[in-house]
Structure formats: structure tokens, C-alpha cells
Amino acid sequence: MIEQFKKSVLIYTLIILALGGAAYETIANMRQTTESSKSMADYSQPPLSQGVYPWSVRSIDTQVISKHWPNVTRASIIEQVGLVSKLGVNYIAIGTPYDKIDEMRMWSEEIHKLGLHVWYRSHWDEWEGDDGKPATMTPEDYLYRTSQFIQNNPDLFQSGDSLTVAVEPEQVGVGLGKRFLTWDQYRTFMLAQVIVANESFDKIGLKGKVYTNWLSVNGWVVENQYTPELVDKLGLIVVDHFVGQSKTIGEFNDPQDLVRQTMHDLDTYHARWNVPILLGEWGYQIFQPVTDENQANVIDLLLSQLRTRNYLVGMNYWVHMGNTASIMGDEFGTNLKYRKGATVLKSFYEPLHSGQF
To answer: What predicted TM-score, i.e. pTM, was given to this entire model?
Structure first.
């Protein structure tokens, strides 16, 4: 209980200071006053157009491979990002843990070489306990370590990239004995991510050039735990949202119902919060295999509806390989080829150049 109390005091201190701004600097220098911090708060972002088509963000995620597959060679990365780049994307998302800087650099270098932006969507290993590490990192440690990471690796980032400091932070839990004692602490951490990243990019000459508010969360959090203050400062909702996809083998879903549910939720989020929406993760089918025709049909149905929503700034298709929702087929990482769904996705990402491969 004593340790929990100490932890609560630390996080409560972070709440007061981070809401005032300059989060990681206040961690390093606790004597800074709240009024001074308020004047330094920076939630600003590069311009991002909504109501345009093709979307401003046309991304495909490589999470399964870039995060979970060991010893992926540069040659394999070149092949994978080369194929993804032909699908009309302007972003490729990578899920490599921030601990693995050499792997991150390989992915980012090859993506940047193709004239594309990188969306860094991951976290530190000790946040959720990945790669055999203990899940012991505190929110305070997370923010400080990330600020140092950005400043120590200026070559990793280019103008137009996006850094999600901690993807889906709700995964570490909220409540007694969890990383966040309360949802107020969670929301404070969300805002502190933006402040920390903005300050750090300012120090490496990329002020206002890297998106830092693409903070992916699940739909339940958007609906139940977002607040007007949080949404106003973020200026954007990024939701990872999979509905209507069954985990039961052999029980397939009604595509029309899946699309209706998804669009109802997105419409509801926009009606309530009145800010642009970025679909941070969506793919079909993430739990079980489906035929190429079935997958392509569902992708077409949903994206046809997404295209009619002016509030949508874009989407990130999850994933390119390594899951039943993949739009590229492979045999243990070799003999890569597009599935039919890739052609459909390209027709929405790059409608003027969407012919067959």
C-alpha cells in the first residue's frame, strides 16, 4: 500500500504539471511553476486536411512483422515496403518497439527512400511487458525516456512523419494496482504525450513538422472516457475499431451488418465530439481466415461508406502480412503476392491509378 501511495503521489504530481504543459521538463525540474508551464504548453500540429479525397492519410500497417517477427532482414523489408508502396499509400506504419532502434532505423530508412512517411505506432517493451521484459515502466519514466529517444535519434524522423508516443495506452489498465490509478491520470498522460513529443521535436529542428496527436485508442475509450477538454486539445480522434468480427471458427459475419455497425460508431463519435476522425486500425478478417473474395467484398463495402464521410481524414489498414486480415499472401515470409483485397484498397487509396497489378 505504501508503494501504491507513492506511485499515486507521483502520478498526481504529473497530472498537475502536465496539464499545465511542458511535461517532461517539469519531470526533470519540479520547481517550475504551474503558471510558467501553462504558457509553454504546445498541442499544435502540422496541417491535416479533412473532407478531401483521396484521404490525407492513406496508411497500411506492418505491425505483425515489424513488431513480432525476429531478425527481419533489410532485404525482406525492402521487398515488403516496396509492395506496400504500390497500393496508393502515403504512410506505412511500423510497430517496432522503441527499444529496438536499429530495427526501427531499417524500416524507416527503406520507407523514406520511397518518398513515403513513417507512422511510428508502438511503445517501449517495459510498458506492456514485451520481448520478455517486465511491465514495470511508469508513465513518468515513459515520458522522460521518449523525450530522450527523440532528441538522441534526430535522423529517424522526417517532416510529415507521425509518432504515436504510446499506442493504445489503456492496454496497461486503469484502476487500483494498474499503471493508471484513475481515468483522469490516463487522460493526463494522453495530453502529456503530445507536449513531450512537440517539445522534443522542437529541439531537433522539426517543430510543427511531425504529427504527435495520432493517439490510437479503442472505441470504448472514445465513447466513455474522452472529455471535451481532451478532445479540444488533441483536435483529432484516432480510433482502432474492429466490430462485427467473430472469434468463433466457422461463424462468419454479415458484411452489411458489420459495415452498418462500424459507420454508426464513427458517426456517433463525430456527432458527439465534432473533430476529424482517423481510423487508426481496421482490417478484415482479424480473427479467422476468409476467402480472398469475401475479404475484398467487405473492404469494398466499408471503404465505399467511409468515402462519403467528410469528417474522415484517412485510415490505416491492419495489416499487410502475418494475420488473417493480411492483404498480401506469403509462405512463411516468402513468395509474397497481393490478395484481391489489395486491389480494392488501392482503388480507394489511389483512385486515379487503381488498375490491376
So the answer is: 0.89
